[in-house]
Amino acid sequence: MLRKLIYLNWSAFLNRLTNFQTFLVVGYIIFLLFLFSNLIGSALVIVLFDQNPIVANRLPWITTEIHQLITLIFANVLWILHFSFTSTRLLNMEENRKLLAYGYPIKKLSWYLNLMGFFHPLNVIYNFTWLVFLLMQIQNLMYIPVVIAVVLLNYAAIYSIKHRFLKIVEKRFKIIVFSALFLIFGTIQAIAIISRQFEQIVATYLPSIEIINGYLFYTPGGLLQYTATGTYNLAAASAIYGFCALLIFMIFRDHIFKTREGLQQPVRERKIFKRNKHWYYLKKWLGLNAGKFYYYVFSHSYNRLQLLTIALIPAVYIPLLLQLGNSYYSALLIPTMLAAIPVALLAMGMANMFGYENKEFLLHKQFPVPFEKQLKERFLGIIVIPLLIFYLITTAEIIYLPQLGSVIEIYVANTFFFVCFTLVFLWASFYYYKKVNYSSFNFKHPIISQKVTFMMMFLIFGLGYAVFAPVGEFQIYRLWVMGALIIAIGIYLWRDMDLLVRAFDKHILHRVWIEAGQ
Length: 518
Description:
Blueprint: H1 2-15, H2 19-48, H3 53-58, H4 64-85, H5 93-96, H6 106-118, H7 121-135, H8 144-171, H9 173-196, H10 198-205, H11 209-216, H12 220-229, H13 234-264, H14 277-286, H15 288-299, H16 301-322, H17 328-350, H18 360-364, H19 371-382, H20 384-400, H21 407-431, H22 450-468, H23 475-495, H24 499-516
């Protein structure tokens, strides 16, 4: 049955695959290979570099305690990355539940879906990296079963905690946001204070390396590493293994029950019956079509998490980069992150323009107002807020960060950044349409596909390097090229706005008809 389930999911995936999606899948695979090689390579270097005689000769200060500190820091960084990128999505939850009507046993289906989720490429990469990192440090062969059990328990706990954390954020969004911002800005202020009086504070307050290592062993990464590097007898190893096995069984049992509940009682798409003041405000200032669309976008819980992420990443990294002064990395990464803020907001609106009230478009086609006018109003309304934020950020860069370049350089570079992604997201909205839906124990299906998100992140940093990297005397030529491309893209969008209707009829309409009949 598992083989049949995998075949059905794979067939459904191939049937939905377009040329554009194939390109995204290939890029996503390259990204996964790059991530896997970097994680494994970093783990090998961290564990083995102190055994290299060249390192011992050139870096005599790397003692056993310092090397242990480095490995503990790496273990905790790896755990944070693992927590951030663990995929909590089940595969085609709504499609697979249709198998119940054909007599597929629900117990097996819920178990197989969790198993398929465990073998998501990102989950496999991080779990395998943990195994390599820990097994290279084991002190005794009897620790191998313990290490394997702990890695499985770590994945199960992250999966469960992350899912419930997302649920808490959905219900207590304002409290979580305020607490996170308070913690982050407090940390930034502490870093700023330490950086101003680094030697004095380190000499006075920094404890010894042994004490720091002792504390780090009680962190998630430290506990994982202790199972490989610690010293304990067979009885302790058996107790740890048994306790981990029991927790793994209980957590996965909970996962299976939640999945079974979701299969039997799926959460229906929530309709917004009560219009609040935001509805009227958005409709008044952005128009009926764009205002209604923005209301659906900002009412969705997942998008509020996206807004939190968009706010937190620059708030954390830009102050740290400013501490580097006028270095090459700060001159490149700061303007890239600032330009990415309106681009991320633009992605929330444009990358899936038709997935919210998708079935309503069957009625919109019959309105006396031309359908082309409706789509133009939606498109122009979508870019208003990101465009406003774009110009506010650009003006702030010119006033407060003049070291990033002249007025012309900043405006041309940021405008080029914005119009390029406007074109990218316009294509994505037609070629990677995704219905907005809800399902139990899956939090929310991302409104923007992970593959589109990958493409966006790859292009942000790739384009950021091409646009913002210092090139000296060649800067004037780059400005002329970007200016010409801005004009060309603007003319293309202005003259070919009727492509909105053609592309909708060709790529979206038949999908909406199929969904309406389900």
